[in-house]
Amino acid sequence: MTTPLAEVLDGQHAAELRKAARALLKQPLLLARGRYAEEFRLARRHASELREWFDRNTGWALQADTEAARLRKSPGVLTDPTHPARDTTRGAAPFTRRRYVLLCLALAALERGEAQIALGRLADQIVLDAADPRLAATGIEFALERRDERLDLAAVVRLLLDLGVLRRVAGEEEAYVSGAGDVLYDVERRVLAGLLASRRGPSTVHAEAFDDRLAELVAETAMDSDELRFRAMRRSLTRRLLDDPVLYYDDLSDAELGYLTRQRGFLTARITELTGLVAEVRAEGIAMVDPEDDLTDLRMPEQGTYGHVTLLLAEHLAAADGPVDLDELALRVRELASQHGGFWSKSAREPGMETELVAQAVARLAALGLVSRTPYAVVVRPALARYAVGETVIREPGSAPVPPQRKATS
């Protein structure tokens, strides 16, 4: 029996819409050229429908023109430090505070600059701006004379290249780092203009404390009616369901938990319809799981030495009945090295490496919502139970642990 043309077209439309939505969630800045060109075309084709969905359900604005599609995402939890920018060319090292400051100074310099700029010229402008007494008072200084400072700037430039803000015309960053040459870039001004994802310009924020400034940047309109308060909760919860590996009930306020209890089916169904993510509801919380295992920047388990160590420590932590000291985990890694070291890299077996291995593992587990950290210990969260060795104890019907997946975001 032949399928009616209308059904075929509806199915094609739904598939394109889902692919575009997933692409925007994974890469919120899509360019007309490059590896996401196909996804950009779909996002632009369905921009009106996507714009309405994201605005209603998350409060994220979508802008699309002939050069780029930009989903202005903001995180559901502003204080989450587990998703830093990374220098993918150097072991995925997370950005430090210094690199973030350099990034902001570089963006400011590019905004004022011409259509082309050399890396050396960009560095000179950053040094001048960094001399501002207000910045110096924070303890951040840049002379860009030392190799480590130039490496930091090169990492920032590589991020801007990856985002499409810059296009390399000639030269290599390594030549600049070593002092043997310079690099020339085209500045994509429309892409640059779309990077800022705040609801208001930072220059209009007058609060002094960091937390207050951050809150002002993303603040919505005054919640002076039940309708507006419910809308704010719907948007906040949907953002967290889309971005966070697990939404734990005990992280919510009483009002948020009450709203989620009443609207859970509606919220999760809307997300599933658009993205294909599937809700797994358990006693402790909800995880929107991706059957395609694509909408995530962190996986568990992962390949390689660090992935193996992380999995082994997850099994160890799942059996804990309270906080576990970091020193205890380091001791456990030394024990594991004697059993499994033959499968690890040579550097991981060197004396003293257990501290770094623990730090890497705990960072990944925290980013996946499996543990939380204190300065000297690790606290297990319910979803880690899926990595326990042996039978999982079910506390009540439906309380099996939820599988974690950290959604990609930027």
Describe the protein's architecture and organization:
The chain has 410 residues and is mainly alpha-helical. The protein is built from 15 helices and 14 strands. The protein has helices at 5-26, 37-45, 47-57, 97-112, 119-130, 133-136, 147-163, 173-178, 189-193, 210-218, 226-243, 254-275, 304-318, 326-340, 354-367; strands at 29-31, 61-64, 68-72, 86-87, 93-94, 116-118, 166-170, 184-187, 247-248, 278-281, 285-289, 324-325, 371-373, 377-380. A 3-stranded antiparallel beta sheet has the order 1-3-2. Strands 6-8-7 form a 3-stranded antiparallel beta sheet. Helix 13 packs across helix 14. The longest helix is centred in the first third of the chain and has 22 residues, at 5-26. The two termini are 46 Å apart. This is TIGR02678 family protein.
Give the beta-strand count: 14
| % residues in beta strands | 5-15%
Categorize the overall geometry: globular
Structural class, by secondary structure, is mainly alpha
Mean pLDDT over all positions: 87
What does the largest sheet look like? Answer: 3 strands, antiparallel
